[in-house]
Structures are given as structure tokens and as C-alpha cells.
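Sanity check. The docking grid for zinc ion depends on where the pocket ends up, so I'm generating a full predicted complex first rather than guessing from homology. Inputs follow.
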Amino acid sequence: MAGKDVLDSKAAKIGVVKDLSLDEGGNVYLVVEGEKGKERSIPFGHVARIGDVVLLRPPLGEPDEEDKKEEVPEPTPTPPIETGLACPSCGHENRPGTNFCVKCGTKMTE
Ligand SMILES: [Zn+2]
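Predicted complex below; grid placement will be based on this.
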């Protein structure tokens, strides 16, 4: 493990693994030596993958695609449709089922 490059979630090298350490609670940390010999401890749970290099998870707070909520549109009640029959002669709207135009007497045909 020691000597492996440590990359963050954007594949930027942050340092080289120097050692593993344990804290009092039994948590494992990666001791990473960064530039200028600066050491930092990274919780082992923050490691995404270990291969030729050590890959870290994205930092907390980054947007998670799985967290997206599906928006459900409110159902709009559809009023009962009652369209009148337009008279072919004068255009007067007669009630549905009317046989003759109440205005001009033209026979309503379908
Ligand atoms: Zn009519």
C-alpha cells in the first residue's frame, strides 16, 4: 500500500500513501504525504478504490443524482364537455341531440 499515488475523485493527485494509522476508536486512516512533505490523514471509508493508485470518493456535499425527486403534476379536473351543435346554415349553437336548428329551422345533420 505504501508508495501508491492517492487521487481525489477528479483524478487529481493529492499525495502518496505513507502509512496506515489507527485512532483510539479503531478507525483506520490513510496517512498521505502530499507536496512539501505535508501529511494528512484520510479516513479509510473515504477510499473508493484501491488498485495501482488509491482513488478517493467525492467529498460530501456534492449533488447526488439518486437524490432527485420526481415531480408529480397535480391532476387537473376536466370539466364535462358539452359542445353544442353548430347549425350548418346560420351557425347557431344548438343543444346536442337537437334535430332542427332552433333559430332558423335547418335540419341538423351529423
Ligand atoms: Zn340555424
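Relevant for the grid: The radius of gyration is 37 Å.
Also worth noting: The first strand starts at residue 5 and ends at 7.
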